[in-house]
Amino acid sequence: MREIMIVTRENLINLILASLLLAVPFAADAFGQPFYITLATRIAILALAATGLNLALGLGGLVSFGHAAFFGIGGYVAGILAAHAFSGDPLVFGLPGSKQMWVIWIVALILSGLVGLAIGAISLRTSGVYFIMITLAFAQMVYYFAISWPAYGGEDGLSILVRNQFPGVNTMRPLTFFLICYVILLLALALFALIRASRFGTALQAARQNEVRVATVGIQPYRIRLTGFAISAAVTGLAGALFADLNRFVSPSMLSWHMSGELIVLIILGGTGRLFGPLAGAALYVIFEYALGGLTERWQFFLGLILLVVVLFARGGLLGLLAGKARHG
Amino acid sequence: MVEPVLQISNLVKNFGALRATDGVTLDLRPGEIHALIGPNGAGKSTLIHQICGTLRQDSGTIRFAGQDIGSLGVADRARLGLGRTFQVSSIAPDFSGLRNVMLAVQAKQGSSFRFFKPVMRDRSLIDTAMAMLERVGLTARARIPAAELSHGERRQLEIAMALALGSKAFLLDEPMAGMGPEGSKSLTRFLDTLRQEAPILLVEHDMDAVFALADRISVLVYGRIIATGTVEEIRRDPTVRTAYLGDHA
Ligand SMILES: Nc1ncnc2c1ncn2[C@@H]1O[C@H](COP(=O)(O)OP(=O)(O)OP(=O)(O)O)[C@@H](O)[C@H]1O
Ligand SMILES: [Mg+2]
Q1: Which of A46, A260, B16, B90 stands 20 to 30 A from B23 (CA)?
Q2: What band does A2 get if pLDDT is binned at 50, 70 and 90?
Q3: pLDDT at A327 > cutoff 90
Q4: CB distance B103–A203 less than 8 Å?
Q5: Do A197 and B118 count as a contact with CB atoms less than 8 A apart?
Q6: Which helix (H) or strand (E) holds B155?
C-alpha cells in the first residue's frame, strides 16, 4: 500500500474528506442535531454504492445504467430477511429470516454479486451504447418484478419496523449506525485501492483503455470485465442493504433507473475512477439536494447545470479540480 | 525439411465485393525472417489480422506450433506464443510504458486474477518488464505515460510487450514506419538478433531494412502472393519489378 501512503495532494484531499465525513456526525451528536447525522449516513451509503459502480465504470469503463438493480436487491434482502425474522415464517428451504446485519450483508453481497454475474454475462457481450441500454433493460426487469410482487409490498414497498441489529451496539442510535456505514465505506475504499493496484486491476483498466491490447497479450477481456462487474454489483448491493436500514424502508424506487443515473452522476461529479470520487460526488450531491431542495423544487435542474459544466470543463470531476490529473503507474 | 512454425494455406478473406486475401499460402520457418511486401492496400495487414485472430478468415487454414488455430480467439492465440505489433501502435495510453509491459509479463506468468498485491511493488513483474524495456532501449522512458511517448517509442514498447510474452513467432506490421533513419537502423540491428529467439513475419515498406534482414520475401499484390523467394530471386523477378519494386531493385 506504499503508493497509497505517499503524501500526494490527492491523498491529502482524501484524508480531509474522510475526516470531515467523520467529524460532522460527532459534532451533530454533541449539539443534538440527529438530522445531520442522517445526512452524513446518506452520504456514506451513497458513496459506498458509487464506489461499487466506480469499479465497473471508473476502472473498467463499463457504463452500467443498471446498478440500481443491485442497490435495490441489497435493499430487498434487508427488508425481506427482516420481515421473515419478524413474522417467524421460514424464508426458503426452511431457513429463517434474520435481523442480524452481518447475515443480511453477506446475503446481499452474494445475491447481488450473483445477479451481477448473470446480467454481466449477457450484457458484456455488447459494448458502448448497447451495453448501457441492456444494463438498463435488466434493471427495469427487476424493477417491474418488484412492483408486481405483492408478497413484499409491491408498489408500496416494505417497512423495516426496527432497524436490524449488530452484536454489541445499539443500531437505533444514529451515530452508531453512521459509524457502521462509515467503517464499511472505508473497507470498500481500501478494497477499491487494492484492486486498482493489483494484477486484476491492471488488466481491468487496460481493457478500458485498449481491449485489443489486452487480448493481444493473452488475457481475455471478457472474463476480466465480468469478474469486475460482479464485484462491483456486490459492493453496490451491500450499500443497498445499509440504505434500507437507514430509511427502515425499501421500495421499488431503489430499483428505478433514476437511482442508476444518480450513481453515475455521483461518480462523474466526484471524479471517474478516482478513489474518493464517489465520496466527493455523494457529498456534493446530498449537500446540494439539501441546500437547494429546500429552496426550489427544481434543484435537479441546477444539478444538471453543474453536471454539464463538469462534463464540459472539468473532466476529472471535483477531485480532478482539486488534486489534478490522475496517475496510473 | 524442418516443420514450419506457422503455416497458412489457401486463406481467403472478403470485405464485401473486395477480396482482400485471395488464396494465400505462406509459411514461417524456425530462425528466419520472412518479409511480406506489397503496395498499399495489398492486404498485408489484413493477413496479419487473420493470423492473430483480430479478423476471421472466410476459408483456409492457419496452423501454428503444430495446431490449427484458425478458430481460436485473439487471447488464446497470444497465449500459444503469437507475439504481434500493430501498424497503428496499440498500447494502454494511460499506463506508463513499464506498466504496459508488466501487463504482458503478468499474462505470461499466468493468472491476472490476483486482487490484492500491488503490481508496483511486485519485483518479479517490474524486473522482467524492465529487462524487456532495456532490450528495446526504452529504459529511460519507462515511467512516462505511454500516451506521451513518440511514435517510434510506441513501436519499441509494443516490441517489448511481444518479447515479454516469450513469443514463438513475431508478426510485425511495419515496425519501421515513422522511426526516422537512425531508429530504423538500430531497429534493423535489433531484429537481426531477434530472429534467434523466434522467427519473424515482417511486413515492411522500408526496402533497405527488408533486403538487409529477410531470409525470404513474399510479394503480395491485390490479396495474392505473386512471388516468394530469397532476396536475390525477388530482386530479379520481372513481375515483382513491375508490380511493386520499380526502380528500387
Ligand atoms: N475492415 C475492413 N473493411 C473493409 N475493407 C477493408 C477493411 N480492412 C481493410 N480493408 C481493405 O482491404 C484492403 C487491404 O487492406 P490492408 O490494410 O490489409 O492493406 P495493406 O497491405 O496493409 O496496406 P498498407 O501498406 O497501406 O498498410 C484495402 O483495400 C482496404 O481498404
Ligand atoms: Mg497495412
Answers
A1: B90
A2: very low
A3: no
A4: yes
A5: yes
A6: helix B151-164
